[in-house]
Amino acid sequence: MTDAQFFIDSARQQYNDFAGGVERHFENVATQLRDWLPEQMRPRPPPPPPSRTLIPATYWNQVNRWVSRNTALSAGILAFVGTGAVLVFIQRSTHVKKRRARKSNNGARTEVVVLAGSPTSPLSTAIAMDLERRGFIVYVITSTREDEEHLRKQLRPDVLPFDLDLIHPDKAEGQMQRFHHFLARHHHAFDGASAHRLTLAGVILVPDISSVAVGSISQLSPEAWSTALNAKILHTITVAQHMLPLVTEFKSKILLLTPNVVSSLRPPYRAIESTVSSALGAFAASLSSELSLQGLHACHFKLGNIEIAGSKQKRDENKKARGMPGTSIRKLHEAMFDALHSSNPSRTWHVGRGSLIYDWIGSWVPSGVVGWMMGLQHAPRNEDQQTPELEDSSSDRSITWEKI
């Protein structure tokens, strides 16, 4: 043992002896104090530690352990429940949303809509009545006294005829100037009411394409083609041209509604309807491109099978003919209102059963496959063959366009 190690051990021994003596001294003093203090003043001993018993697992503990063991399944359930909740919330918000036209401070109607379509068509009538219920002033373009009488029979004070002579351009220009003056001047809802101005919310074009002639191309007369092209295409384009100055001034929107099923599938014996629908679709695309340069919008509504409210017998016949009910026309009304009031509406809207899927089939599926899907067969080469009879009549097709 070295001298340093001996010195360290000696110092450690002396420290331990000193610490032990101090500890014994304090313990002796504490014992004397306990004996000297009375019983009431003595400090109470600390309480015993609580017994450690196992706490039973609660319901949430069990759920937490199950989630930890089944992470993938738990994530799937959470995603499913979350997505369902979001969809329910969106659906309820859509139904709760009130679609009403803007009014002035005194409650007067201020938004005007011009509807260009056959006033006697069930679709045009349904659109006009719905827009009027939502607070619009609806002007329906008429060309005959029968059209005006039909509108007056509806007994709607804010569904009014708009006489626009499309045959004589000079007369039509004067009629448009008077209509522009009517929109630009101040109006009073009642005596003493504050003045308010009207605005053109939009122009809605609804050509009744379903009323065109049906048959083989070899049997369709030139008069049938001329009538369809003039009454459906040229009439629609002319109305849009007359309305464009007002649309530009009031920053309005143009809505064009066309059936989409026949124009997408292009079945036999529907040459006129397919041609008219395709031409109007091209016109809508060009019109939308031109208006977009001015910050304006034109929307093309491609319609599928839509059920229009009518007699119960009529609806039952339609369901039997198609085997599947169509989309409620309420969806079309809501989509049109959203397009009129949206700051940046879509160019193309698909509304009605079959509109989107038939558009996709006609664009991507080969024509041979489409013909096989529709059950088409090769007809015998007989010059005396007749055009097959179609199930639907012209009046029936004006209500529901999809019969394929």
Automatic annotation (TrEMBL):
Keywords: Membrane, Transmembrane, Transmembrane helix. The chain crosses the membrane at residues 72-90. The keyword Zinc-finger does not apply. This is DUF1776-domain-containing protein. Pfam families: DUF1776 (PF08643). The keyword Transmembrane applies. Residues 380-404 are annotated as: Disordered. InterPro entries: DUF1776_fun, NAD(P)-bd_dom_sf.
